[in-house]
Amino acid sequence: MSKTIGICLTLLYVLSFTHNVELRHIKGAPKSDPEPQCGYKSCHPTKPNMLNVHLIAHTHDDVGWLKTVDQYYYGSETQIQKAGVQYIIDSVVESLLRDPEKRFIYVESAFFFKWWKEQTEELQDKVKMLVNEGRLEFIGGAWSMNDEATTHYQSVIDQFAWGLRLLNDTFGECGRPKIGWQIDPFGHSREMASMFAQMGFDGMFFGRLDYQDKDERLMTQNAEMIWHGSENLGEKADLFSGALYNNYQAPDGFCFDILCSDQPIIDGKHSPDNNVKEKIDAFFEFVTKMAEGYRTNNVLITMGEDFHYQNADMWYKNLDKLIKYANERQANGSKINLLYSTPSCYLKSLHDAGISWPTKSDDFFPYASDPHAYWTGYFTSRPTLKRFERDGNHFLQVCKQLSALAPQQSAEFDPHLNFMRETMGIMQHHDAVTGTEKEKVALDYAKRLSVAFRACSTNIRSVLNQLSKGSSQETSTNYPLELKTCSLLNITSCSTSESSSRFALTLYNPLAHRTNEYVRIPVLDYNYVVTDSSGKSLPTQVVPIPAPVLSIKQRNSSAIYELVFLASNLPAVGFKTYFIEKSDDTAHKKPKSLPKKSTSYTVIGDKNFNLTFDTNGFLSQASADGMTRMISQEFLYYEGEIGNNKEFLNRSSGAYIFRPKEGKLHFATDHVSIDAYKGSLVHEVHQKFNDWISQVVRIYNGRNYAEFEWLVGPIPIEDGNGKEIITRFNSDIKSEGIFYTDSNGREMIKRQRDHRDTWNLKLHESVSGNYYPVTTKIALEDSTARMAILTDRAQGGSSMQDGALELMVHRRLLHDDAFGVGEALNETEYGIGLIARGKNHLFIGASLMREDISLKAMERLVQLETLLPSWKFFSNMKEYTQQQWLSEFTNSYTGISSTLPKSAHLLTLEPWHDNELLVRFEHILEKDEDSNYSKYVQFNVKDVLGGFNIVDMRETTLDGNAWLDEHRRFEFVPDPEDESYNAYGVFKKQSNRVHLLDAAKPLLGVKYSNEALETGELGAESNRIRRSANNRHFTMHRERTTQDERKSANKAYVPANDRAKYLIELSPMEIRTFVIYLE
Ligand SMILES: [Zn+2]
């Protein structure tokens, strides 16, 4: 909502359960107002004593699924799917221009801006008019409609920031979406609700929730609710959320698209086919039944589907008739009123209804569409694409930071960075990172991402060369440092380190802390000397590359060892370069495995933390925090169910759903061959389970956790069975059915086996119905001990027995599950089943008391270091001796002037508009995770970013595109007794809502208004440090101010203490976003 909305603030809104007073009108502006009339101001009026049927004309345009992004945009490959997005937008715009009554919403910025760039200025102006008048409204607005189970919050925020920014730059205030529109993702995360709220969205609608949950909610009028998105952030993470009645489809018989076969409305007076009466009767029957499930006299009907409106007139012509003939009946007493509407206008009607709403505190996972279809397979589907996506996020952050730190920028910097931003936006789509696309489309995503890596690499190479050489004179053809990324390090292969006897390794650390990191480099031999930036040679260790890795057929590498060293004190947001040289020195010894004894146990680690392996080669116990616990780890598999999908009972396991045959587990082996290697830096056990499963378990010196690097594949299918492979950790921890999984990498959510918080679950799939998405962490504990596992990509996970945690690492299936993709998830590479490799980190120790840092806090810190470790850049150094290298290059650099407190994270540092940075600071702990690290932290931004010439800073909503202090959100009031609605295990069916106000009421939200802040009574949460009055110089909500304007504005007001304005505080899990203006 913009400031132009007539604000009539007579009384402060005080949260009460009885009555609330009028605060602001949204229809205050006179008709002649030249201001844009978009959003809530452009809604068609509803009728107070009728059932108002909001018809939402919409199209659902997947950013890749059965066809690639470009195939969908251009409409090629029609034999796969008749879908062309360019025609959709063309056609809709034409229809909208003809009739001001019509409305349309558009969601995916990836497609919209591709179309926009191809239009003439004339047409662009017309589209701007449509947007300004609220006739074309952007909803969602991110680059894609992201998945919610397998995405990481950092990437979700990024893709919203970018989509909303282009909308803002192009359309201003009227382009800003108010509503989240997650109509197709397969279940919904609590963190997503929290992010929507923090981005300033007024509400969110979604399509898919468990069929039992949905029935229950419709029966009890709880399908629309206030979702508490965070246990740490309070009200500012609350989001009004509504489950749609019919997913996102039109009612049966009312699909008027060129892709549908329903009858049009035939209204020829004397036509023998005239069907007006029966159509309207059927429609009324549908909406009347639907209205029983919802609380107000408004219902939202989605009129559209996948790639609909390629011929928009077909839809609109029939909708016109539907509205006309339905509303004609009002003359005869009908109480049903149809109107063209949008989700925001519908939400406004709900808000204006002035009633209270139920609340929700857990999430909508797992999603089941029928008793035998739990959509929990996609949590793991395409594990290598999921890992590549996470690499993409890592590289994007490095690219953003270095582009921001560049002494000199060339003209391609922005396009390169934008390409990477946009590619990562595409990757978040609910058929991309999910692995639910066709194989060819998955390959297209991977290809795009590798092109994006190349584009961003050129920025990075330029910046690192400038910073290393201390001069910006070098041209791109003449960089002294190659700074290559070895993209095959995941199979321990790297051309530079393998082909050069002298090379430099530049480690770029994107964290705002100094880090110590163990580095591993594939090499041909065991005699290398590593010199750090001060010329000191470092201790090294060489370990052999495990035989199963060496025998990967397509691994085109001669490396047989890994060189290990500790890179210590890596500069924050900076780099350190190491010089690595092969030596003739005979002091180096060839690594040897410990002698094998069939009678004794193998122990790795030190006295603080160690793991024991039994004589069969399996992990058998762990010692940590002074206690020894029984703990084992093994690989097992489920066989995928095979069925004809004709009825629920005959569902196959597939790309979307996980359906194990009889829920039965099979052991991969009963004996593991092991080799152990111990040196001063790392202890390793190399395990071989069978011909297609192996693993390295390692503990680095001084580390109180272990790394499990698994290698799985090709999964055998010769027996005709697809297989879904899990790694399982068993312990003697008495977890009593309770375990915890993260939500998009942030807050943890409590799970209970065979149970849901808000309804009485009837479980027909005992295993897959207990699977949850694990983006980064799964954990369990009792009063004494705790076990947690970090993942390096999204995986499905569960605790099927007390004390046990399982993660699905890979799956290969031979049948389709009949949800549209039309292919079995049978990934192959080089003609054989796909091989996947990945890492899990195991933490085990005391659940409560620890001397310095709690296990939970340690997990958080390691989670950050594994998400964003230093990026390795390799340069051949054959032209330089070590001495020349030392004297000619700057080998250590930091881009910030002060590191952040350990629990604070520099979530974002990127160039934004000219002379602007977009910066996010985040507190990475939850409130009770540690007595020390969970505390508030405070620091001064000018201290941290001292290297930048900062002239001003202003806080924005999470997406970075609206000023926080000017942003208003609708406020909704919870049902009184629902305060305890979701208390664990408590389910209250009965809703006892309160009518707060009569019809035609006002908007309640004043939470972030300046008035509220002045009194100190309300809304201070998002603004803990009182904003400097200086901020008021920024007038319009959405307009960019020029530097000159800012300067003259600054003259008018000289703050008493400039530094104070840059002092910020973070509470647990808080993210604060700022635009920083540079000289
Ligand atoms: Zn979709």
Descriptive overview:
Its EC number is 3.2.1.-. Residues 373-449 form the Glycoside hydrolase family 38 central domain. Residues 1-23 form the signal peptide. One of its GO terms (molecular function) is metal ion binding. Strand 37 (828-829) and strand 38 form a beta hairpin. Strands 20, 21, 22, 23, 24, 29, 32, 35 and 36 form a nine-stranded antiparallel β-sheet that branches. It contains 20 helices and 48 strands. The protein has 1079 residues and is an alpha+beta fold. 22% of the residues lie in helices and 26% in strands. Zinc ion is lined by residues 60, 62, 184, 430-431.
Helicity level, as a percent range? 10-25%
Shape: globular
Main sheet? Answer: 9 strands, antiparallel
Rg from C-alpha positions?
A: 29 Å
State which percent range the strand residues make up.
Answer: 25-35%
What structural class do the secondary elements suggest?
A: alpha+beta
Distinct ligand kinds: zinc ion
**Count of extended strands:** 48
Q: What are the segments in which pLDDT stays under 50 over at least 5 consecutive residues?
A: 1-33, 978-990, 997-1043, 1045-1054
What is the tally of helical segments?
20
Query: Whole-Å distance between the termini?
Result: 31 Å
Q: What is the mean predicted local confidence, pLDDT?
A: 89
GO cellular component, one term: lysosome
EC number: 3.2.1.-
Protein name: Alpha-mannosidase
Domain Glycoside hydrolase family 38 central: 373-449
